[in-house]
Amino acid sequence: MQSADTPTSNAGRAPIAEFRAATKQYGAVTAADQIDLAIMPGEFLSFLGPSGCGKTTALRMLAGFEVPSSGSVHLDGQQVNLVPPHKRPVNMVFQHYALFPHMTVADNISYGLRQQRPKPAAAEITRRVEETLTTVRLPGFEQRRIWEMSGGQQQRVALARALINQPKILLLDEPMAALDRKLRREMQIELQSLQRALGITFVLVTHDQEEALSMSDRICIMRAGRIVQIGTPRQLYDAPLNRYVADFVGKSNFFAGPLSQIDGPIGTVSLPGQSGQGRLGQGVQKGANVSLSVRPEQITLTHSGPGLEVLIKNRIFLGEHTEYLVNHGDLGDFLILVSRQGEALEGTFEPGEPARAHWKPEAALILNND
Description:
Elements: E1 17-26, E2 29-39, E3 44-48, H1 55-63, E4 70-75, E5 78-79, E6 90-93, H2 105-115, H3 122-135, H4 151-163, E7 169-173, H5 181-198, E8 201-206, H6 209-215, E9 218-223, E10 226-231, H7 233-238, H8 243-248, E11 253-263, E12 266-271, E13 274-280, E14 289-294, E15 300-302, E16 308-317, E17 321-328, E18 332-339, H9 340-346, E19 354-358, E20 364-368
Parallel strand pairs: 3-8, 3-9, 6-7, 7-8, 13-20
Antiparallel strand pairs: 1-2, 1-4, 4-5, 9-10, 11-12, 11-14, 12-13, 14-20, 15-19, 16-17, 16-19, 17-18
Helix pairs in contact: 2-3, 2-4, 3-4
């Protein structure tokens, strides 16, 4: 599926890779189901979804480790269903890096070059290893052993090994899953900078929504082997197609009920004990059971004034903001994020204390449940 969300810098350019109704079955199990997707040159695209949604299967079909049961995969306009991985202009960084512990850093990085026939000259291999180590900010590490390096350094070695063959597409299979939170954030920034500097197409598989949102030009949200929605991070966050996407991209509160009224772009949902208003999402129809989705940061929490009367159940200080879990007698529990600036104006709230929660209709979104 060629998405309208493709970055405008790629307007008029041919895709570097395509899935055309690509399906992969393992017996009775359909791991990837009719995937249609065009990947553009130089973009950072992510497959995002829970375990078992088909994202890794899609990546492996692109790499050549899996052959589609039906449909096709194309690279540079050519079908590559039966082209083996080592003959494709792609390289892959695996979740656990797959480095050889008995080899030096230089030997790990140059492994692919040394398998080529004819093999490059020793001086050329040395030059390219040094150049690639500089690219990943590990100059002078040629003779270091893998077990002597930190997790972040090992990841850079894995990146260097993939980059040294100068692939057109770099595939990343949850490469930061083993890193701690701070190091993972640092590596996200490094990967972004590296991708922009090299101009290589990056395709990332992750179940970490923050990782996908912070790094990607476009994100493919997957479910049960299918692509549910494709868009830029902002498009997916602000205009999710349905409740599944809204629930997977960022945090959201959902209040379920029938869509009782439509007034232009605003709808009214009948909720327990009251009604709630919000912008109409794609394809919602009057009378249908829907969800009113409200992001926690869109809700104002005050000691008094308009809004729902709630009880503070819990408070978690998260630095740049405070997360409050509140309870409403009819709507149940939901989350509110209050910024440091908001707390400076209104003050803090203690567990067990009553408060008021309010949001504007345009801050909420009415979504189909499926």
